[in-house]
Design brief:
The complex is a heterodimer.
Chain A (H helix, E strand, L loop, with lengths): L1 E11 L2 E11 L4 E5 L6 H8 L7 E6 L2 E2 L8 H5 L2 E4 L11 H10 L5 H14 L15 H13 L5 E5 L7 H16 L3 E6 L2 H7 L2 E6 L2 E6 L8
Chain B lengths: L1 H17 L1 H38 L2 E5 L5 H12 L4 E7 L1 H11 L4 H9 L8 E6 L5 H8 L2 H4 L2 E4 H47 L2 H10 L3 H41 L5 H7 L1 H25 L5
The chains are: A alpha/beta, B alpha+beta.
């Protein structure tokens, strides 16, 4: 359902972020993108959600050819994806409930469906009692759980998590990974970018390793191996 | 469609309310700008009034020789009235002139007595001409100096007042033009200050805009609430600015009145309240919505 075909991203002659990247993701997969900082993980994700355009190559997502999407087509396209960022990126002026509801409101879902669905999902991530709290009243782990609730509430086909545990302690990091696994078990494709060795080794699923913009390893039941 | 619209309104109101201080600061800046705008309107009306009261005092008087028959004077009056520059012509017969003279000096016994002792009427008939525009007196004076007319005319007041009239014309034109330019410049600056304030407020929300876009919000849904916020700010600012301006007008009214007799700033703003409110609302809401629209645009790419 997702395919990168000979994708290059070259910022300038000294900065090649992606160098002929080629891989596919099938529906229902759990794939980890690993590599050191600057290996190209974030660039892969930015290209995948259409935030940046590749210098060369094609990127497919379901029926979309992402590299050809126009600015005004991006919003609709992004409603097929749920994104979780390292720095949470919650809307500061909205409380937990409203942050999650926003992902449904942008899709034009009716109010009744929203007021049914949002509490359910917040319950699922263990924040049923903090729906009215604003982001600044939540801990890092709680914020990330709100972000995951927001990413999954509209039942996207794919959830993309870019270093979701980067700002969390190991205990809360494990909680977040457990949530992602749970979502995956419900049938959603998950793409997890991380450089956390322990997390990768504990998941035991497909691992794509990037180094200096190239895919250097792609294996089922992979481990994190430093070059 | 309706859902999107009602959500935009809702977000706008909620954001405006929750942003408390920044919203209040934006409204305050807008109030200042609208006060400038209000006083520009009042200033323009005031100068217009002043110019009109001066214009009203300028005229040309044509004094006829004593032997001019009244029919001839009336003929000349008619021909002057056909000129496109002329606003009004008033005929004052020698009897009427004498009567006015008596009325004007009714309290002065010596003059009254002197007039009574006179045989006949020493005052001459005259025409009092007002132009539509003060700069047109030159043309009227030229018309009156035609030979067919000068044989009846004894004296033209224009020749005596020419310098004064010309100077007044220059002053009037300068005030009109200067007022217009000043209005444009100040209104532009006021608008720019508001625009920048809103731009800064939205600049601080650029990350939020990025998040909304990442979650899949359409441009309308991102931009709409900011525009609603701008409109609310403009609305509040328009009302507040008038609440501040009207009492101020009451305080300064006597001073303006001393400068331009017969013009009361307070009374003007009070009787034209609806019109002024409309202007303030148009300016406030317009600049609020426009600034938000433009300021968000740059964050809607990618």
């Amino acid at each position: 359902m997702i395919a990168f075909q000979s994708v290059y991203k070259i910022y300038n002659s000294h900065a090649t972020a992606l160098d002929n990247v080629d891989f596919r993701v099938s529906p229902g997969e759990f794939i980890s993108l690993v590599g050191r900082s600057g290996a190209g993980k974030s660039t892969v994700i930015k290209l995948l959600i259409g935030e940046e355009k590749p210098t060369r190559g094609r990127i497919f997502f379901g029926q979309y050819e992402v590299n050809k999407l126009k600015d005004n087509e991006l919003p609709t396209f992004r409603r097929h994806i749920g994104i979780v960022f390292q720095d949470f990126r919650l809307l500061a002026a909205k409380n937990a409930y409203e942050n999650v509801a926003f992902a449904l409101e942008v899709g034009g879902r009716p109010q009744r469906e929203i007021s049914d669905l949002v509490p359910q999902v917040l319950d699922m991530v263990g924040l049923g009692d903090k729906m009215k709290n604003f982001p600044h009243e939540l801990s890092g782990g709680e914020k990330q759980r709100v972000a995951i609730a927001r990413a999954m509430v509209h039942r996207p086909e794919v959830i993309i998590a870019d270093e979701p545990t980067g700002n969390l302690d190991p205990f809360h990091a494990a909680e977040i990974i457990d949530l992602l696994k749970k979502i995956h078990q419900l049938g959603t494709t998950v793409i997890l970018a991380t450089h956390d060795k322990d997390i990768i080794n504990s998941i035991g699923k497909r691992v794509v390793t990037l180094d200096r913009g190239r895919v250097i390893r792609d294996e089922e039941n992979g481990k994190y191996i430093l070059v | 469609m309706f859902t999107v619209f009602s959500r935009i309104l809702n977000y706008g109101f909620v954001n405006f309310w929750r942003n408390g201080w920044p919203s209040a600061a934006t409204v305050a800046i807008m109030v200042l700008a609208l006060l400038v705008f209000f006083w520009l309107i009042v200033f323009n009306v005031t100068t217009e009034q002043a110019v009109m009261s001066i214009q009203d005092k300028i005229d040309i008087s044509v004094y006829f020789k004593t032997d001019t028959p009244e029919d001839e004077i009336l003929n000349i009056k008619q021909s002057i009235e056909t000129l496109s520059e002329v606003k009004s012509v008033e005929y004052i017969s020698s009897d009427r002139a004498l009567q006015r003279f008596r009325e004007d000096h009714a309290d002065d016994q010596i003059i009254t007595q002197a007039v009574n002792e006179l045989q006949g009427n020493p005052l001459v008939a005259s025409l009092n001409i007002k132009a539509k525009d003060p700069s047109q007196y030159v043309a009227i004076a030229e018309y009156l100096s035609a030979p067919s007319l000068t044989r009846w005319i004894d004296d033209l007041s224009y020749a005596k007042n020419q310098d004064v009239i010309n100077r007044l014309v220059t002053i009037i034109n300068t005030v009109n033009r200067g007022g217009f330019v000043m209005t444009l410049v100040l209104a532009f600056i006021a608008g720019l200050v508001v625009f920048n304030t809103i731009r800064l407020a939205i600049y601080s929300s650029r990350d939020e805009i990025g998040v909304m876009r990442a979650v899949g919000a359409s441009n309308a849904l991102v931009r709409g609430p900011f525009m609603v916020e701008g409109i609310i700010a403009g609305l509040l600012a328009a009302v507040v600015s008038l609440l501040v301006a009207i009492p101020t007008a009451y305080v300064v009214a006597p001073y303006v009145n001393a400068l331009i007799p017969g013009f009361n700033v307070f009374q003007y703003s009070y009787t034209h309240l609806g019109e002024l409110l409309l202007y303030q609302l148009l300016f406030g809401i317009g600049i609020g919505a426009f600034s938000s629209f433009v300021a968000v645009r740059r964050y809607l790419r990618n």
